[in-house]
């Protein structure tokens, strides 16, 4: 259903080149980012009280084509088992067969590559949850990746101190690495949610026509300045319920990253207030095309996750302290629901103070 080689080739061909950087400056940026990822890891550990249960090294620093290749590898790890299951279960499904024939794996690969080419110019860093197995057949637990050209380009555009900005970015990304290395079950939980979401996508012809119509309306609404996006346009009611659970987990992860980054920042990043103000202004000053693309691809939803998640973490920590907040990482059952993300006291009553509620 997806030609992965076409996706990589399309993405690498379409991605815009990074900023012009002297070779010596590029090498210095790569070395500094690796160093600062280790520095940030120590700050995150001290502030959160969390400890990784497996060894972690410095971040992997990549360029934009490298980020595209890594993400296609991640998509393959997540999607191929699901696509194989879907193919075997729906081999005789006329709608699925017609779709596969009409769209074709190469066209789907081109579409994926084009989206990744756009995103490759925006992402500063990420914690890659899903990696191909090593030569011994073991699946790595994850990898922290920093996209050097985007970090350099952003700090130049914002005119901020490069050392401070790079450490600030590393604080956020190292928090993500801590979340998954200190809580090994979280990775499989996210993968289970993604599998459940994908396998719930079966639609008959009438449903498909309705979703395609909704997608067209979403594009038109985005152009007009509305808030529609392609993610919700293609969701069935069953998928919407699953997506709420995915959103809750991602809001917690992204909000926790932002909370730690801003809480630790004033102690170790002298110019953090200037960086945060200019970073927020840059987010809000997107050109019209960027605004439409961000909205259609769900990037604005991600910004909402940052805000709602950070508010949740801040409210819980202010009420019960960091040690009690860390109960959130105990199990799948202690994760907040989307309703609890928006009502932190409900989570506190359920997880931190359950005895007080029942008495």
If you had to describe this structure to a student in words, what would you say it looks like?
There is one protein chain. This protein has 359 residues and is mainly alpha-helical. It has helices at residues 4-14, 23-48, 64-89, 94-103, 105-120, 148-158, 162-181, 185-199, 205-224, 230-233, 237-268, 272-284, 288-296, 299-320, 322-325, 338-341, 344-352, 354-358; strands at residues 60-62, 125-128, 143-147. Helix 1 packs antiparallel against helix 3, helix 1 (4-14) packs parallel to helix 5 and helix 8 runs antiparallel to helix 11 (237-268). The longest helix has 32 residues, at 237-268.
The biggest sheet amounts to: 3 strands, mixed
Rounded to the nearest angstrom, the distance between the terminal CA atoms is 55 Å
Q: Tell me, briefly, the overall form.
A: globular
User: Quick check: average pLDDT?
Assistant: 81
Beta-strand portion reads under 5%
How many beta-strand segments?
3
In terms of per-residue confidence, which ranges show pLDDT below 50 for 5 or more consecutive residues? 203-231
- What is the helix tally? 18
Helical content (DSSP H or I, runs of 4+):
over 70%
Main structural class: mainly alpha
Cα Rg: 21 Å
Helix-strand string: HHEHHHEEHHHHHHHHHHHHH
| Biggest sheet strand line-up | 1-3-2
Topology diagram in text:
Blueprint: H1 4-14, H2 23-48, E1 60-62, H3 64-89, H4 94-103, H5 105-120, E2 125-128, E3 143-147, H6 148-158, H7 162-181, H8 185-199, H9 205-224, H10 230-233, H11 237-268, H12 272-284, H13 288-296, H14 299-320, H15 322-325, H16 338-341, H17 344-352, H18 354-358
Parallel strand pairs: 1-3
Antiparallel strand pairs: 2-3
Helix pairs in contact: 1-3, 1-5, 2-7, 3-5, 3-8, 6-7, 7-11, 8-11, 9-13, 11-14, 14-17
